[in-house]
Amino acid sequence: MNNIHRGLDLLTKEEREKAIKDITAYFLDERNEEIGIILATNILDFFEQKIGSHIYNKAIDDSRTALKEKLEELDYKLSELRKK
After folding, report:
1. Structural domain includes residue 26
2. Helix intervals (H) in 1-84
3. Which are the contacts of 58, defined by CB distance < 8 A and separation ≥ 6?
4. pTM over 0.85, yes/no
C-alpha cells in the first residue's frame, strides 16, 4: 500500500490500514458505493489535515487538565502529612 500521505502521522501504519478498510466498508455498507483504496486514503488524509491537529490539541489539553488535578490532589495529601 502506498504510504504517501501528508497527515500528522497520528496513526500507526496498522491503524491507517484499518481506518482505510473501515472507510471502504462504510461506503459500501451505508452508501452502497464501492470505493478504492486511493479514494479511502484521500478521505482519511483530508480528515487528518482538517481536524487532526484539533484532536491532537484536545488530547494535550485533556492530559494537562488531568495531570493538574492529580498534582493538586498530591499536593493536598502531602500538606496533610506535614507535621505541625
Report:
1. yes
2. 13-31, 37-81
3. none
4. no
